[in-house]
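B., you asked whether I could sanity-check this one before it goes into the benchmark set. Here's the sequence:
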Amino acid sequence: MEAKAILRNARIAPRKVGIVLDLIRGKDLETALAILKHTPKSACEYLVKLVNSAAANAEHNFNMDKNSLYVSECYVCPGPTIKRYQARAKGSGARILKRTSHVTVVLKEKE
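And here's what the prediction gave me:
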């Protein structure tokens, strides 16, 4: 069995999230949460909640043992981009792209 949690439209760029996801991929639940707690990246705040949510889904919906869970899959996809403009020299404007992310974490039980 596998339990998953999805975070949609997070206001953080996908490449920033992908760096942190590479750190926890394949790790057991306690190690992944410890890594996220002690990593100084802004994506960690989102991911701690997401991993805890996936663990709660596994425990509540599928009666999995929380101590034997590990992060089997975790990936990020780009969400909708918010377009903004900033004033520049000589009356022109520069486009600012505020990127969003869809993050998915899948937990499985060790055999």
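One thing to flag: DSSP finds three helices and five strands in the chain. Otherwise nothing jumped out at me.
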